[in-house]
């Protein structure tokens, strides 16, 4: 099931426009959430195995980023159902509180409280959200008053990784005045003909005061009320000429694209945000200011445990730069257990590094990916290795383990390879980006791997750790 939906999702990302529905069904539940003496009913939409109330969550393809959406002044959550379900269909847990009042600063704190509540539910066995939320990646949005509150929230909480408000209104306390304190990228979507919260006095100064990365996407002919599903309040803003359906479609495109990039690391969204589809979109007026963003999260692959005294091969998944023009470089740090500072540091632009004449001892190794000196992401896992002291004569038996002794040939190869190793030992082959490409049972006689490999470098692992690498050439 997971593989099938992954392939469906991957095909969707390649072929579909982000305004189209995503591959997930949407379940919905409501909870009364309390923060101090404040209570507010919150509607949740989430990826599910079927649509409807309290539907079984799709746990196989989780966890999912979180998105909190704030409604407009005296509006109802139900007025935004299309947008909320759309985000859930793209693999988000979407929370939409029905605010109990209009105190803007308190609304921002309510949104943050919902994020914290979901974090707690994510750790609670029996909760519908148990292990369902990707708590490292949360976005906030909202319309009008709720949009302004979402901007206040992004200046207050390190839990928020993106703000995408729709026609955000100035707030009390002032969102405009504190925008310089935003802790995450801000992508503002506005209506050019907005007669309720005009761009010139609301969204433009918010954009001007925000730190990069920031963007202002103005929908030509868009008004204030057509960010909602209902036409009940269109009388309050008659200036826009864009149809409701078209305004919602354009909004879905850029809201989803920004969310998928910054909350999922989906760099196929570059073209929708910065590439030709955006540059040639005659329905928007667009401005942005870039700055290097933290590279996407990644994990180390190996080695771990006892290692030889030289030629230790360190391998990790590739990180990704989120913005066009960013590039990623890596730092490998070896630290003694409990040490405050690394004992040894190495640098590379690749996702593997061979260390010759490794220092003896026990070391925690950790990789950090950088897009600039101040924007970086540490690997999600560190690994311990033990390196023996080197005597005058190299002792082949000091390798990490007899289980790691694997031969591969021909190397380099034109596509087919043979593996030889300890009888019955499970050998795994990974691409340089960490994708499992093949798994075979080794034998004392060469075994052909039933796969033709594309050109590149591949990593071989065995139960004792990394066993080596091989190269496929054209």
What do these coordinates show?
The chain has 474 residues and is of the alpha/beta class. It folds into 3 domains: 14-289, Rossmann fold (3-Layer(aba) Sandwich); 300-390, Sandwich (Immunoglobulin-like); 402-472, Immunoglobulin-like (Sandwich). The chain is 19% helix and 32% strand. The chain is built from 9 helices and 26 strands. It has helices spanning 2-15, 81-89, 104-122, 145-154, 175-178, 203-209, 244-264, 270-273, 276-279; strands at 25-35, 38-48, 52-53, 64-70, 93-97, 133-143, 162-166, 186-191, 214-219, 284-289, 300-302, 305-306, 312-316, 329-335, 344-348, 352-355, 361-370, 376-378, 383-387, 406-409, 418-421, 426-431, 436-441, 447-448, 456-462, 465-472. The strands form 5 sheets. It has a 10-stranded mixed β-sheet, sandwiched between helices. Strand 8, helix 6 (203-209) and strand 9 form a beta-alpha-beta unit. Helix 3 (104-122) packs across helix 4. The radius of gyration is 26 Å and the shape is elongated. It starts with a helix and ends with a strand.
End-to-end span in angstroms? 35 Å
Shape field: elongated
CATH architecture of the largest domain: 3-Layer(aba) Sandwich
Question: If strands are numbered along the chain, what order do they take across the biggest sheet?
Answer: 3-1-2-5-4-6-7-8-9-10
Please report the total strand number as a whole number. 26
The CATH H-level superfamily of the largest domain is Alpha/Beta hydrolase fold, catalytic domain
Number of contiguous helices: 9
Question: What is the total domain count?
Answer: 3
Main β sheet profile:
10 strands, mixed
Regions with pLDDT < 50 over 5+ consecutive residues? 1-15, 391-402
Percent range for β-strand residues: 25-35%
Task: Write the CATH fold name of the largest domain.
Answer: Rossmann fold
Radius of gyration, in angstroms, nearest whole number: 26 Å
Helical residue percent?
Answer: 10-25%
Structural class: alpha/beta
CATH domain class of the largest domain? Alpha Beta
Average pLDDT metric: 89
